[in-house]
């Protein structure tokens, strides 16, 4: 009897385990079904991270990992005219916040060290980094004052003669902001007026491909080349100049930063054959950094479903190609989501299934992004209205709209890699904390629970492993199943939406789950589980939008027994620096990275910095262009202590396992002073920590031998410039005085005790002599700060105390 009872109990246990094991999905969402967060809004800013959005996102990354985000879309990161620009007015593609030009080193995103750290931290948290790229236009030619940017010979009718683009380099830093200095700068990829529309090789000044909508409009036609009439540095250009250089740049960008994919801005405004060229080469012609067939690539094309599909095919078949290389944001579906939220319950949800674009192989469904969403805000960042004149794609969907979750449930249920907008996932528009919150503070930066729940369901139930099947539709009801496709599971999820204000909706549907299977509502809208009947049918109930239920207008059913969070693999990062004289910058205010190894000299060249975790091996490879000369490769900690060195002929490999988390500096030099100059490539592979705590590890914004906050202290390593502040302590306003020995650029900034820049007082050319200016501190909280003065003669700092 006991044996029979034991066998019975064992059979029950086995039945229970087999039932639940059957329902636990064994597969992940495919590569073209990942969740991508737009990690910024249009005029992104946080006072705790001034000109340091890369640090903000690095500190936010662990929260994104815990939410189940697969990819982080970041804004354009190349140098614009100033940090007041959010990245879409590019000036120098090869300046990632490391060169001193346009009166600044940093971009709005941060400096290059901070940018590369973000990539490492995102990878450590299992996320891809999606780089925003602008190929259509450039802007703001000229020095920081505009001198040298205009070519007097240009007279082709668009009214913009500012098309002399010259960039600083290691051998030609910005020693002044004169026209002569600007026009002699020899940085990579200089541009002249013939490289833009209109030009003699492509007589075109109107239409999507030629109109200067956003600045000087790049021309990728083969004949768009020529020389400047007034620039000193004026190399000869040849056929396909802009196309060849754009292709070279995106490959360099992929190698240098280690980003994983790309979002392309305004793709209808330059030729599809140029787009095909750039994407194919960064996928398959970037060597070790090849993106490969599954690289994320999406273009911003505002248009109908037919126009989106046509553009995808135009790119696919350009230049003899045959691969679907790039997808589009699904503006067609998005328009219907906008119509639904604006309909107040009067929209017919049966319109949704037919609204999505036809080519969905790489499609990106979305609800909002920075192009559709332009709020008018008060001083604290709360919404007070809408800048509808600058909103594309049908205009904004208010994150406080009661049907926001309905829109997201639909966007996640249909095919594609759903994109989540920052302001939809996080409430920054109603708590007066937009600019002042810390990204780690869940109270000041709260998550909208509905959106977080939809992301969790999409990831845990593996929506995109299943096929898209519409099971029921009507005025107020839409039910989509991600049903049987391949694999051991019969089905994955059932997503139901309802845009009615106060009435539940229901339908009995056929499912792919099979007979007598237990289903659970992971939205929490329905408290009790249900079972399919003997034919696999189930009745789905969907709550209304009035807030009477824990969810507004959606439910998500899947196999019972699925729990847990997210713990993606901590990935390594690989980044490669090309050490060449036409890259980098030797200016005292720059990061002083780059430059080829100098002839007849053993002077060190600063390669760059990596941010590595304690106990995780760092591997640095050096590839010379001259294998017969002895080269030395060094690794230092952030304090400048040499940790590891290797030298020899040909390729070199250096390995080191750090005993502490932080920045590590790579430098190279000729071992012998008899060596000639040569270009070298340096590649580093390392693992960043999941939790970066960026304020504890400030990235130097200047040369490693210059002043920087380190271990909580400050040091001065330059001549005294007489920097004084009176009165100190500072209440509302004080006077800052200093003297300089010769005319030159003066840069004055205020830093917190943790090393974060909090204010910029000056960045301009001043004459020799005594100077005084106001130091306004009303916006600063009480505490200790450091004023930093940088001139051509060195650096001076002074601690001040702000009181309230």
Write down the CATH topology of the domain at 31-136 and 244-451: TIM Barrel
Q: Main beta sheet, described?
A: 7 strands, parallel
- The count of helical stretches stands at 11
- The oligomeric status of these chains comes to single chain
* Helix and strand composition category: alpha+beta
Compute the separation of the termini in Å.
Answer: 82 Å
Overall shape: it is globular
CATH class of the domain at 31-136 and 244-451: Alpha Beta
Radius of gyration of CA atoms, rounded to a whole number: 29 Å
Measured as a percent range, the helix fraction is 10-25%
Query: How much beta, percentage-wise?
Result: 15-25%
CATH level-four homologous superfamily name of the domain at 31-136 and 244-451: Glycosidases
So, CATH architecture of the domain at 31-136 and 244-451?
A: Alpha-Beta Barrel
Average the pLDDT over all residues and give the rounded result: 91
In terms of per-residue confidence, which ranges show pLDDT below 50 for 5 or more consecutive residues? 1-26, 701-721
Strand arrangement in the largest pleated sheet: 8-7-6-5-2-1-11
Task: Say how many strands there are.
Answer: 34
């Amino acid at each position: 009897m006991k044996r029979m009872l034991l066998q019975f109990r064992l059979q029950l246990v086995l039945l229970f385990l087999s039932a639940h094991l059957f329902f636990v999905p064994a597969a992940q969402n495919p590569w073209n079904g990942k969740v991508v967060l737009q990690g910024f809004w249009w005029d992104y800013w946080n006072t705790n991270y001034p000109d340091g959005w890369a640090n903000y996102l690095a500190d936010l990354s662990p929260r994104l990992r815990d939410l189940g985000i697969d990819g982080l879309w970041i804004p354009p990161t190349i140098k614009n005219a100033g940090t007041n620009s959010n990245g879409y007015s590019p000036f120098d593609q090869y300046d990632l916040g490391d060169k001193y030009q346009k009166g600044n080193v940093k971009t709005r995103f941060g400096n290059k060290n901070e940018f590369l750290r973000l990539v490492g931290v995102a990878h450590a948290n299992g996320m891809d980094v999606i780089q925003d790229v602008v190929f259509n236009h450039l802007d703001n030619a000229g020095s920081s004052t505009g001198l040298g940017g205009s070519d007097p010979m240009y007279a082709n009718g668009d009214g913009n003669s500012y098309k002399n683009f010259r960039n600083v380099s290691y051998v030609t830093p910005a020693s002044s902001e004169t026209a002569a200095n600007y026009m002699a700068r020899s940085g990579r990829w200089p541009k002249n007026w013939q490289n833009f529309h209109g030009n003699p090789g492509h007589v075109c000044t109107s239409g999507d491909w030629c109109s200067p909508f956003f600045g000087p409009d790049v021309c990728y036609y083969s004949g768009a080349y020529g020389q400047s009439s007034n620039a000193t540095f004026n190399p000869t250009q040849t056929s396909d100049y802009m196309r060849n250089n754009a292709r070279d740049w995106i490959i360099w960008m992929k190698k240098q930063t280690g980003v994983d994919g790309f979002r392309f801005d305004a793709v209808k405004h330059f030729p599809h054959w140029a787009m095909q060229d750039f994407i194919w080469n960064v996928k398959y012609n970037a060597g070790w950094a090849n993106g490969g067939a599954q690289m994320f690539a999406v273009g911003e094309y505002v248009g109908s479903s037919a126009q989106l599909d046509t553009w995808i095919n135009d790119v696919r078949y350009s230049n003899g190609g045959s691969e679907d290389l790039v997808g589009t944001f699904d503006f067609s579906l998005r328009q219907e989501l906008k119509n639904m939220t604006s309909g107040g319950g009067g929209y017919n949800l049966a319109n949704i299934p037919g609204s999505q674009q036809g080519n969905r192989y790489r499609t990106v469904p979305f609800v909002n992004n920075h192009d559709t969403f332009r709020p008018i805000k008060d001083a604290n960042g709360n919404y007070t209205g809408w800048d509808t004149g600058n909103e594309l794609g049908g205009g904004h969907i208010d994150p406080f709209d009661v049907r926001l979750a309905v829109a997201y449930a639909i966007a996640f249920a249909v095919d594609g890699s759903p994109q989540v907008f920052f302001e939809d996932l996080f409430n920054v528009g109603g708590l007066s904390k937009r600019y002042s919150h810390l990204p780690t503070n869940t109270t000041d930066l709260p998550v909208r629970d509905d959106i977080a729940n939809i992301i969790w369901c999409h990831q845990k139930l593996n929506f995109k492993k299943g096929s898209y099947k519409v099971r029921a539709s009507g005025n107020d009801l839409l039910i989509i199943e991600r049903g049987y496709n391949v694999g051991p599971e019969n089905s994955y999820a059932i997503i139901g939406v309802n845009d009615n204000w106060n009435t539940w909706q229901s339908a009995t549907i056929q499912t792919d789950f099979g007979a007598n299977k237990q289903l659970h509502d992971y939205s929490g809208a329905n408290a009790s589980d249900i079972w399919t009947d003997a034919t696999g049918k189930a009745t789905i109930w969907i709550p209304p939008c009035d807030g009477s239920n824990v969810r507004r207008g959606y439910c998500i059913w899947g196999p019972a027994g699925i729990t847990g969070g997210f713990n993606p693999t901590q990935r390594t990062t690989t980044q490669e620096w090309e050490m060449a004289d036409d890259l980098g910058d030797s200016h005292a205010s720059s990061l002083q990275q780059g430059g080829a190894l100098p002839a007849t000299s053993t002077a060190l060249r600063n390669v760059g910095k990596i941010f590595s975790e304690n106990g995780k091996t760092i591997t640095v490879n050096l590839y010379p262009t001259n294998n017969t000369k002895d080269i030395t490769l060094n690794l230092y900690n952030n304090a400048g202590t040499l940790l590891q060195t290797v030298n020899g002929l040909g390729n070199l490999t250096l390995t080191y396992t750090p005993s502490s988390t932080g920045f590590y500096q790579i430098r190279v030099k000729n071992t012998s002073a008899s060596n000639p100059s040569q270009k070298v490539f340096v590649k580093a592979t390392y693992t960043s920590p999941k939790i970066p705590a960026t304020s504890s590890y400030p990235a130097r914004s200047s040369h490693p031998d210059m002043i920087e906050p380190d271990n909580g202290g400050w040091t001065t390593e330059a001549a005294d410039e007489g920097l004084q502040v009176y009165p100190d302590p500072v209440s509302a306003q004080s006077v800052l005085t200093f003297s300089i020995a010769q005319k030159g650029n003066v840069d004055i900034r205020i830093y917190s005790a943790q090393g974060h820049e909090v204010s910029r007082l000056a960045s301009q050319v001043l004459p020799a002599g005594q100077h005084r200016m106001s130091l306004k501190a009303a916006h600063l909280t009480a505490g200790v700060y450091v004023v930093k003065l940088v001139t051509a003669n060195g650096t001076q700092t002074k601690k001040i105390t702000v009181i309230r």
